[in-house]
Design a protein that fits this description.
Elements lengths: L1 E6 L3 E4 L5 E3 L4 E6 L5 E5 L5 E2 L15 E5 L11 H5 L20 E2 L4 H7 L3 E2 L3 E6 L5 H14 L4 E5 L4 H10 L8 E4 L3 H11 L3 E5 L16 H16 L4 E7 L11 H5 L2 E6 L6 E9 L7 E7 L2 E4 L18 E8 L2 E13 L6 E4 L3 H15 L6 E7 L11 H13 L7 E3 L2 E2 L5 E2 L4 H10 L4 E5 L15 E5 L2 H11 L1
Parallel strand pairs: 10-14, 10-15, 11-12, 11-13, 13-14, 19-23, 21-22, 23-26, 26-27
Antiparallel strand pairs: 1-4, 2-3, 5-6, 5-7, 8-9, 15-16, 16-17, 17-18, 19-20, 20-22, 24-25
Helix pairs in contact: 5-6
Amino acid sequence: MQQIQVISIRNQGKTSAGSYQLMSHKPLTITAMAKDKTLYTCNDCGATTPRWLGKCPSCGAWNSLVETVAETPASGKNRMGAAFAALAPSSEVRPLAAIEAVDVARTPTGQGELDRVLGGGIVEGGVVLIGGDPGIGKSTLLLQAVDALQRSGLPALYVTGEESGAQVALRARRLGITGSQVSVLAEIQLEKIIATLAAQQPAVAVIDSIQTVYSDQLTSAPGSVAQVRECAAHLTRWAKSGGGALVLVGHVTKDGQLAGPRVLEHMVDTVLYFEGDTHSSFRLIRAIKNRFGAVNEIGVFAMTERGLKGVSNPSAIFLSQHAQPVPGSCVLVTLEGTRPMLVEIQALVDSGGVSPRRLSVGLERDRLAMLLAVLHQHAGVATGDQDVFVNAVGGVRISEPAADLAVMLAITSSLRGKPLPKGFIAFGEVGLAGEVRPAPRGQERLREAAKLGFAVAVVPKANAPKKADKAFEGLTIHAVERVDEAMALVRGLD
């Protein structure tokens, strides 16, 4: 607040010369509000700058600075000290051998696929962050899980900041949830939510969503970097200081990243992402971070009129149903977390123009260009004047290099116009020297293929079973060391 003194001027009259005569010099005090100071905060690292920049000077991220209101420093101690005190409680120094190793207890949510991604179920005091596109099914899945936990005897609280209680009840009726005793609170103020959590003491609490919650201690709007960071810190403190399990719902940006500061992902124990096309009935939920389970674990759901249902055999989703083998199709045994899955890789090679196109869906485009170069150099298959299109069926994203051999065989099959044998699978990483490297957990991949009735497999030599196993009955395994060897082997199988 600033005070400005202004001299009051009164006109007594105009003289013959046209001049004015000043009468009074009484000071007049005008009070003016000082303008709020703004800063620009990086969503990735949290660094602040006084002006907007295209590139963060601290971490180097592009277009990550957002405008925030600078908070006035509080007198005395840091007001956030109490919020983070429970996250790292003080303790005495002890040898590692003297610390008792106790496994955390997990409570199943009633959704088998969700339990798989979480590592067996929810953990007391654990904080889960789940993000996804609007309308993909986050609220639907959590409402089903919270109702199942409440029916198992755990008190549950569902805090909604985007819908009213009537809208939540309407969704529950559509899902066939009747007679539910889940407590519902429509509130976005942090202080009231914390007071309700302290009074109700739920075993499981859902905050839908964290971007709508705000604190009175900050002047910024809900969803800003400061609001999301502080609200998440206070809610995490409640969970870690003896409260129940906490689930935070977060929105994502246009490029698929979680909206808000990146430090939000560091605070929580588990980060889950919903994937999939909203026009399709299938949804994928993937664990990006998990302190109580495997990372990159995947769960598959099907959206029905009664909500999300787990898919016990996800391999059937990612395999096209062909009456007869078609050119350009090769089945890959990929590994998603701890689960082996069969995914069909489709390739289409067509005569290109002046500048041939390279397009991949579900696979890395740069890796596709590298595989085409290896295919030309070490196998003699030229595609320099051809358009190459590669697709992973079902909308799944494959990031592991074990898909290299299947991609190259699919491209070769489309170029030759001859399909691969019926019941054919392949996996293996291909190096720049043309060697075929082993894939992790190859034996589990082969068992999954044999269980589903596949007959022929081309795998790296290091992944071939050393001795006969009943789990591989009916599956003929061909071990290869180089790309040209694999191509010659496939031509002999025609």
